[in-house]
Amino acid sequence: MEIDFRKLPDNQHEILVRDRRGPDVRLPAQPTGPTMPHDLVHAAVEGELALADGFWGAVAQGATFQGFELVAPGRHRRSGLKVLRRKGDAVMAAEMAVNWAYRVWSGLPTEGRGVGRSPLDDSELARTGAALDAVAARWAAVPEGEALTWSWSTPAAA
Question: Cα–chain-centroid distance for residue 144?
Fold first, then answer.
């Protein structure tokens, strides 16, 4: 699966997803955030941790999340909902891992009321921190109007 993260003016980005199970989809312009697109953070962390059933693994299998649109008009396919019913718990676990890795990497609080325990150990945090450093540098180097292309293949279980 190929994922294009296109950098747009005004700290926005859009995403195009090709060569997945199911039709090509796109996410129209979204705010990028302070450093890089949240879904790019997912690609880096899920890839580093070999999370085959996370957000991008579910998309590769045909799931479509809120905001994504079909690139070419066509019949609505409900198979993406089946993927989410089967893999929803794994997608949520990946969301927690990605959010925690980003929290640590960006220096947000990791202790205190409402924060909870880390789903990642120190080794995983070191690996995901390095992966986020690398992808942040790649994203920063992308000129406005151009795209960072991420090749996603479902990782083997770690």
Answer: 20
